[in-house]
Amino acid sequence: MTSVIAVANQKGGVAKTTTVHTIADALAEQGREILMIDLDPQACLTYAADAQPDDLDVTIHDVFLGRVKADDVLLKREGPDILPSSIDLAGSEIHLLTKTGREFVLKRALADIKDRYDIVFIDCGPSLGILTVNALTAADYVLIPFQAETLSDRGVGQLLETIDDVRHYTNEDLQILGGIATMFDSRTNLGKAVLVDVKETHGLTVIEPPIPRSVRVAEAPGEGVSVLQHARRSRSAQAYVEFAGNLEALL
Ligand SMILES: Nc1ncnc2c1ncn2[C@@H]1O[C@H](COP(=O)(O)OP(=O)(O)OP(=O)(O)O)[C@@H](O)[C@H]1O
Ligand SMILES: [Mg+2]
Asked: Which residue, of 5, 121, 190, 229, has the greatest Cβ tally within 10 A?
């Protein structure tokens, strides 16, 4: 059975894209069939995975417009496959506004291809708009990256409310897989306090281990690879590999 995991947090820059890219790589290395979907018009995942959005004839935007099938957009590669995005995807949001069944477009599109994969990761953009709702509607699980640096962060609460709405209206089986603490600084007490706060305030289980902050992670996208290829022995790469194993055990 395929597991579809939406990686979502409307807060920007909490390492959604980095998390998708790195754990997808880690699980592909273990021999799993993995698909990554870039659902952000910024197309950061597409760039990070070394597919140049400007060179692509079709992207997931064309799937949302109903012009092509997901299979026509799929980039098959060594490592995880990817459904790429481009800035055009911003136009999909407007197109979808007037469309009946707009929450279900991605779910329908995936139906043809998802059986080929063990796990599908969807990289959401920093919004709770219709694209993210499409991801949550198509998903079996949500993984919530958060940066453990702000106590009483209201963002996670808002996301959990959206997840409740999605369960109510479009996907009653959606499960929260847990949180992932990113860019973690274990030397400060604040980081640890935020982990406790997230559990107590929101009842969110945080999957171990936290991912340490490291310049190695930030360097990787510039080379079109994840930190696993860029700096395999860094603590952050190893933490992501361990995290990926713990995540898979929960499916
Ligand atoms: N563990 C880490 N250590 C240092 N830098 C990191 C780490 N994880 C991510 N980053 C960097 O932080 C920035 C934001 O990461 P990323 O793009 O993955 O976040 P995002 O949540 O996808 O952002 P957006 O909301 O814009 O989509 C990037 O420059 C990334 O390279
Ligand atoms: Mg991103």
From this structure: 121
